[in-house]
Amino acid sequence: MSQMQEAQLAILPLIAWRVWAITTSEPWEGVPGPVLRGAWGHPWPGPELEARCLNPPVRKSVFSAFLFGREKRAHQSPAPFLSCDCGIYARKPGDSDDLWVVRIAHLPMAGGFIEMSGVVIEGSKGFRAQRARLVGPVEVWVPCADCRSPATEIFIRDHLFRGRCNRHAAGDVPGMARDEWMDYVVPALGRRYRVPVVGVEEGVADGHR
């Protein structure tokens, strides 16, 4: 979001829409089980999150060396900050989430509503906030990592869940059927984030429907 098009607001909580990647968690993160991650790899340990400024990675691959807590403090001022890109990002309901989806399109994804509060900065394409809380519902979908068609099977590679369709099935890498994976992930995310979670066949790649 362009800094010239932003305005800082101290407003009542507002509802916005965003997407996450669904990944495995690492032992040192203290959040065993499947977890939602933002586009830069930062995990949401629970339903509430407070922003802190991190130096964004200077690389195209989202979940490369930056993933799993390899982050540096950028400034000490509370996040979000007008002269920085920090904060918890979300879109206005109905707006396209194309940039976020492109970044995590090779991974299982979730989309849902969050309540943003504290200091909120509004830009031309959405918001970034000081605090956020999942209010649900959350929709889960798994694209094929190779073609983004709905996956029929899920496997783990490089500590991350990956989906594959029948056309791109690889017999040398063991996996589980999509429905079996959903039976594991959907209840686990519901317990962690305390919101309704549902599995869907098609993704919400263009924002909330």
Describe the secondary structure blueprint for this structure.
Blueprint: E1 7-10, E2 14-23, E3 35-37, E4 43-44, E5 48-50, E6 88-90, H1 98-104, E7 109-123, E8 126-141, E9 153-157, E10 160-164, E11 176-177, H2 178-193, E12 197-199
Parallel strand pairs: 8-12
Antiparallel strand pairs: 1-7, 2-3, 2-7, 3-4, 5-8, 6-8, 7-8, 9-10, 9-11
Q: Mind explaining what this structure looks like?
A:
There is one protein chain. By secondary structure, the chain is mainly β. The chain contains 2 helices and 12 strands, in the order E-E-E-E-E-E-H-E-E-E-E-E-H-E. The protein has helices spanning 98-104, 178-193, and strands at 7-10, 14-23, 35-37, 43-44, 48-50, 88-90, 109-123, 126-141, 153-157, 160-164, 176-177, 197-199. Strands 1, 2, 3, 4, 5, 6, 7, 8 and 12 form a 9-stranded mixed beta sheet that branches. A hairpin with a 2-residue loop joins strand 7 and strand 8 (126-141). The longest helix is centred in the last third of the chain and has 16 residues, at 178-193. It is elongated.
List keywords for this structure.
mainly beta; 9-stranded mixed beta sheet
In short:
Helices cover 11% and strands 34% of the residues. With 209 residues, it is mainly beta. The chain has a domain of 142 residues.
Q: Outline the biggest β-sheet.
A: 9 strands, mixed
What's the SSE pattern? EEEEEEHEEEEEHE
The total count of strands amounts to: 12
Shape: elongated
Structural class by helix and strand composition:
mainly beta
The value of Rg in angstroms is 17 Å
- Weakly predicted, low-confidence segments: 57-62, 64-71, 205-209
N→C terminal distance: 23 Å
Oligomer: single chain
- Overall mean pLDDT score? 79
Number of helices: 2
